[in-house]
Amino acid sequence: MRALHAVLLVVLGTGAIHCASRTGSGSRSGARPASATPSSPRQGESAPRAPSPLHAAQITAGRDHVCARTAEGKVLCWGANASGQLGDGSRIVRVHPTPIREVGDADLLVAGDEHTCMRRARDQQLFCWGQNGHGELGDGTTDGRAEPAPVSDLHEALSVSAGGHLTCARKTNRFVMCWGEVHEGGAVKVPTPVFGMTETEEIAVGAYHACARLAPPPQGNVRCWGANRVRQLGVPYFKGRGLPVAVPHLENVIQLALGHEHSCARTAEGMTRCWGGGMRCVPGEWFEGKRVAVKPGGIPGMDGVSLVASGADQACAVRNDGSVICAQERSPTGERSCIAEPIVGLSSVSGLALGDGFGCALKTDGTVWCWGKNDSGQLGDGTTRSRTEPAMVTYVRW
């Protein structure tokens, strides 16, 4: 994902928990841009009903778009759509969730900057759509697609992850295959094995790097590869690596979450550890105008968590009590410091997805709540107004 401009701790709630934003809260009017439209009826369809809450089983966020999967396997997307990343056959911005008509049995969903991928439940086949200039759709071409297309020569995918212009999948034999933009700038147009990545338990993808968690032993062993300009690989040098390298000073990892140029991990003890650069807040040193964590470090207050999520330049987590906290940069005495602050109004959260300047939370009742930047309708509330408070995503049924 591209770096999240300083908006996201717009993300950090209401009241006293505000963070300065370049766009500011509510900086855009309620009028939709010319390219924005709500879900519209197709030929032969009746007039719309009043908006009703969207109920989802999973959510994922790209740079400026969001997709959700329902318990029945349907996929709905909203937000920016210039590259066809919403998969509805158009390139029209949608301010409400719009269904992908041909999809009815999805069981896994991920998003990169401007592309989206899903797994089909019945045969574990992967389908992707959206931008494809770097081969991120894995269909052997660089042609963009506004509707789902199968990934070439990849069957029985156990899991999949996407970020930036890169996509990776774990096969049922737990080998890792990747396709899309590599850190040298080249394009890999079909799934290609990552050397040495066997017995993996999890993969996570950033904008130009990826990480995998290996099966024990050793417990929680994490290896990363790709770009390393701001130490996002967690190793003590700045050169990128085409082959995976072990991240030192990191143990007992049970979950990974990668942003544009940073990496985060959740340990078995419920602690959050982040490294790399480009985040609004990460303990570390200043390098070329960015704060860089040269090795995994904790963020004060971001512990006791059950889930970690990374956006373009932000990290948030779901605490064990179902509340959401996000890393925020403070400078009360003139010296910048990091601390985790809650997003007011969110509780009973089971899922979290962060984009570029915005975030969405999935509650245990299936409702989806989004906040932050909304210039492309990525909050899914029927407007293009940015919000400091989470608003419920509504679905216009036709």
Defining traits:
single chain; 398 residues; mainly beta; Methylamine Dehydrogenase, Chain H; five-stranded mixed β-sheet; five-stranded antiparallel β-sheet; 32 strands; 46% strand; disordered N terminus
Protein described:
The protein is mainly β. The chain has a single domain, classed as Methylamine Dehydrogenase, Chain H, CATH 2.130.10.30. The protein has no helices and 32 strands. The chain has strands at 36-37, 52-53, 58-61, 65-69, 75-79, 93-99, 106-111, 115-120, 126-130, 145-150, 157-163, 166-171, 176-181, 187-193, 200-205, 209-214, 222-226, 241-246, 253-258, 262-267, 271-277, 285-287, 290-303, 305-310, 315-319, 324-330, 337-342, 349-354, 358-363, 368-372, 387-392, 394-395. The strands form 8 sheets. A 5-stranded mixed β-sheet has the order 1-6-5-4-3, with no helix packed on it. The chain has a 5-stranded antiparallel β-sheet with strand order 19-20-21-23-22, with no helix packed on it. The chain is globular and about 55 Å long. Residues 1-35 have low confidence and may be disordered.
Rg over CA atoms: 20 Å
Low-confidence stretches: 1-35
- Which architecture does the CATH hierarchy give at level 2? 7 Propeller
Strand percent estimate: over 45%
